[in-house]
Amino acid sequence: MMLKLESISAGYGAAQVLREVSLDVAAGEIVCLMGRNGAGKTTAMRSIMGLIPLMSGHVLLDGSDVSALPAYQVPRAGIGYVPQGRRLFAGLSVAQNLEIGMRARRSPPGVLEEVLDLFPRLRERYRQPAQTLSGGEQQMLATARALCLQPKALLLDEPMEGLQPSMVGAIRDVVVQMRAQGVAILLVEQRIDAVLAIADRVAFIENGQRGEVVPVDALRGDRALISRYLGV
Description:
The chain is of the alpha/beta class. It is built from ten helices and ten strands. The chain has a single domain, classed as Rossmann fold, CATH 3.40.50. It has helices spanning 41-48, 74-77, 94-104, 109-118, 120-124, 135-147, 165-180, 192-198, 216-221, 224-230; strands at 3-12, 15-25, 29-34, 54-61, 64-65, 79-82, 153-157, 184-188, 201-206, 209-215. The strands form two sheets. It has a six-stranded mixed β-sheet, sandwiched between helices. Helix 3 runs parallel beside helix 6 (135-147) and helix 6 packs parallel to helix 7. The longest helix is centred in the last third of the chain and has 16 residues, at 165-180. The relative contact order is 0.19.
């Protein structure tokens, strides 16, 4: 098992959002976290990264308790995070944004070349400031920066939101490639067709509590569960 949430509870101040959520994501698996807006999906991601302190429970990566680490050390432990809204360093170039990813785990130089091979568009834009990129290119850069860590686990919060189809395809292809390389991937995504195309399992979350965890094959044949948890 690669990434494991053990009964994590978390929130903001006195407001509890997550209630004893347990979930595991194996190496080489894509698990999608689905739920309505406000269900706790982003809070779960931020809790894993140590950006929100846990009220109780543990986050384990390969058996090591990463929830005991300060937030800046969580990427160094091997968890890459692509937050919703990308959070790039806008005033810095593509190269400088990637350099920050490389330094986080002191990745060897060859890793940067591998990442640029995955995203040829970024090689073309290498010296451009991040804010001059299109939305899709910025998403590529945020993803590439996380991959510079050589992550064991990768968290992606709505990576395909607002992108044109060609960019969605490019991001999706890279995510599938990471799975093939044995990365454990936890994905928050509302686009049902995108989820059904790449995820292995879907974990539903409702009111901060984990609902059913269902193999994607079962959902393809019966979308009633999706309707129940998402109200679509």
